[in-house]
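User: My advisor, Dr. K., asked me to get a structural model of this assembly before our group meeting. I'm new to this, so sorry if the format is off. These are the inputs:
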Amino acid sequence: MNSILKSKWTKAVVFLICLVPVGILIWDAFTGNLSSNPTQFLEHATGDWTLRFVALTLCITPFRKILNQPQLIRFRKMLGLFAFFYGSCHFAVYLTFDQVFDIHGIWADIMKRRYITVGFLAFVLMIPLAVTSTAGMIRRMGNRRWTILHRAIYVTAIAGVVHYYWLVKSDVHLPLEYAAVMAVLLGWRIYEHFTKVARPATAPRPVAKQSTTVAPE
Amino acid sequence: MLLKQSPELKYSDITPRDIYVNRRKFLYGMGLAGGLALAGKGLLDMLNPSARAYASTKLGPLASSPFSTTEKISPEQVVTTYNNYYEFGTDKADPAKNAQKFVTTPWTVSVEGECAKPRKFSMDEILKLAPLEERIYRHRCVEAWSIVVPWVGYSFSTIAKLVEPNANAKYVAFESYFDRKQMPLWNRAGIDLPYVEGLRIDEAMHPLALLCMGMYGETLPNQDGAPVRMVIPWKYGFKSIKSLVKIKFVKSQPPTTWNITNASEYGFYSNVNPKVDHPRWSQAREVRLPGFFKNTPTQMFNGYGDQVASLYNGMDLKKNF
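Assistant: The format is fine. Below is the predicted structure of the whole assembly, which you can bring to the meeting.
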């Protein structure tokens, strides 16, 4: 398992898998399969994939610790950047087709409509995370500051789900499914934080073999 | 004039069937299925659930209407696969898949309440009450998309006059069919059912208000509100109630489904109005399906202001949205 996770090929394969959703959308666009309301279809598809990649990114740390697979950390940055990529596609579709490059209209939307406000917040918060995702930036910022900044992904996760919940007309089942997933992923972190604090300082951590070049989470 | 045959629009002009059955999807599905002929059909259904899965009967002869727009008619494929009919699921593609087994025969519509001659009408009677007209109307959804549909029917006032509404009839309440067994997704709809709608009596009696039994020259597909529905072209689409079973003349303003669900977002009148935003989005522009860009300016009363604006003289349409 560890050797598979370590292989550079695995990383390449995961990268290609992450591109499959956008590949399908491009294929659908060329074959005329974007439904009768293509813009809404693209908005929903890219929005869904943004939330899914945010959730996948947030899965890395719990799985790494619970399954004792430290190598999983190699995929966190890539998944996070894909969340940003799909979020950017989502915003681009809104900008191009929904608002037709009407910057004033977009600003009015952000100011007036709370689901746009939180959605925009979720997107904008990903920008500094994407910019500081390189090893060089981690080194320059220092682990502690970098870690604090990257907790913004928690806000993105919550704001993204609230954005979805506020935009549906009456059937809230799907947004609640995302909310449940995010609640588990964030809840695990809260649980972990408090159990870690409660642990006597002298007791050794059971999982000690963690890569030191990687920022803690 | 109403009975004049339309010289310029023939059914051969409107979206030939073989186009919307979408041969490319068909071939794609068959190719994937390869030699597995049996699996092929299942796969085809999966790939292309929307391909003409409904039965319909041709209606005619149809009189043309002076109310018809000359704008380009939307492809039938769009109008039959992109539906808001929450009883059959909340995704736009759901009704086309889930309404196919909906039983619409026999069907009766009860017309009752404040009128001299309340009675029930069978579908056969409804189809023969008056000459059927084709009315090509713009249809504007509250979600800021629009289509142009060749509906078939006649003015609602035709059936209303037969039961002789009395002086107490200030409003008309409409009710949709509802059956948990036939509509198993009902509890995901998030709205109270049966679906109810309402109009002021003068709105309902306006000749533009259509009692609709068909579209594209044929009976209504289930997902579009078979067998009989209302079409109120100057109001947002949700006012045009589907699968009508009850029409009741009443004294006071009746409850309406989306207003019950969220009163701050959906008013009783719900006239198309580019100047009154939905709290969550602008109503100034719309996307004409199946297009990409939301760049079609929305018109006051959906472009039917010349006919209906006088119904609202002196009313504050921002307050009475």
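One thing worth pointing out at the meeting: Confidence is low (pLDDT under 50) at residues 206-214 of chain A.

User: Perfect, thanks a lot.
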